[in-house]
## 1
Amino acid sequence: MTGKILIKCDLVVRTGLHIGDSSSFSAIGTVDSTVIRDPFTGLPIVPGSSLKGKLRTLLARRSCVNGETLPDFSADGEVILRMFGGSEPVRFARVLIDGGERTEGDTLLADFQQYGISKLDYVIASHPHTDHIGGLTVFLGMDPADSGVTVGTVITADVPDADIPTTKTYEQFLDNAEAHAEDVCFLSESMELDLGSATLQLIPSPIKSDAETLNEYSICGLLTSGANTFFFTGDAGKQEEQALLAENLLPSQPVDVLKVGHHGSKGSSSTEFLQALHPTDAVISCGTGNSYGHPHQGALERLQEVGCTIYRTDLDGTICIRSDGKALTIQTEAEAS
């Protein structure tokens, strides 16, 4: 089984503001006969149609008519966070984080069209491995006049000169970003994206040279939505985790949800890192029967030791997380079926 992780945050500005459904929210993935439907669109979720173990996160904001705003977060394959700001939204700001392998480029565009996205204000590449920038490369290579989707700023990891990859995919990624985005930014300092009633703080890797792998240059992110917090890790491993700890770059309070680093690999989710974040819930994106053996048993045991509940897309399918700004409720595709 594979699926999405849907995070829906209800930040109440007036009444009844629901992520993914601006009128009401009765179930996550309602079952119609044998069809599980996307709670955002009502369209069927096709088994195996999402990215397998690759983070692709869309964030968006919708402003309410009274001037208050709510973020709209969405991501497919690993995480979809989708937030709607009210019954009469008037403007949007959307962010895409990572895009899977090159084969996912057309899937990205199909999802944008499905959700009615005509502009991405930010496209974020956590680090330049092909399984994170491949789909972005294909999508950014599309002429906006043909795709119907324009791109504002592309943000990517500031990799030191000695470690800049020379892969064809990375070169094309940069070429396509320069050709079709309004701006390109190599993140060297923390950046906070104001999403109205939520913020997304982008945290560059504190490792500036001699990283063990490109994974250790991953951009991390802290989403704060009301009293709820979500931490995203890219493919950060123990080296970057230790650097984040040493430079006091992690949130000072426990997080509600941790998107587990590097798909739950053996070399991520160190004990010290998990103890610092102390997540209530952890979500792992990994494909069923993947050849890497993700998630690794050691990583699972360390997550269990800090007392968090673990959700996995290979076992749970689509995972829906709903926040009212104070508490979370979680339901999975496996439960719904």
## 2
Amino acid sequence: MSDATTGGASATRARRALWLAWRTLTATALVVGVGLAALMLLPAALGYERYVITGDSMSGSIDRGSLVFEEVVPVAELERGDVITYEPPGEASAMGLVTHRIVDAGTDDRGETWFRTKGDANESADPWRFTLDAATQARVAFHVPYVGYAYAALSLKELRMLVIGGPALLIALLLVAGLWRQAGEEARREASIADADEAAEEPVSAPPDEGSALALARNP
């Protein structure tokens, strides 16, 4: 086998490896983009609220960076063991929203239901009791670990547009790359056919007649 043939085969293998790597990369990016877009859009369409866990008080059950999906239920349906996201009362409200588990509940002198919560990773319950003013409350239905980091990043408008528009761009690039590759293969195939036709049309010289050759030799 000549060096030219070996070099051509190596170049072909290299192009195929690059093409496979490109397809794998774009397919992975497409799946990730579609998955994140689905996490943004589908739960909201189904009525779920979404919250990102930024602390460690629920570690072991719901770790930091998790994305929790919560269904809105009547307050009357809440019971011990439910995990809810709410704003603590009084000065504790400066903490912002808290996602903790209900560990105690009761009724005060006015007939209002009060709750006490606790983080699963905390040693003691939260130091406050509270009531819920609204008739409904968000209760954790399920969570997805670590996706909250990406979800928080998607709060940036530019990144959100990239994630939503990126899959469409990747699909377009794949289509263009596929058409380019197909066109190249078609051009090479047509060139091979043309070379074969050209070779077939070249005249082939017939061997000289033996008698004529002898006559020419005897009659210079």
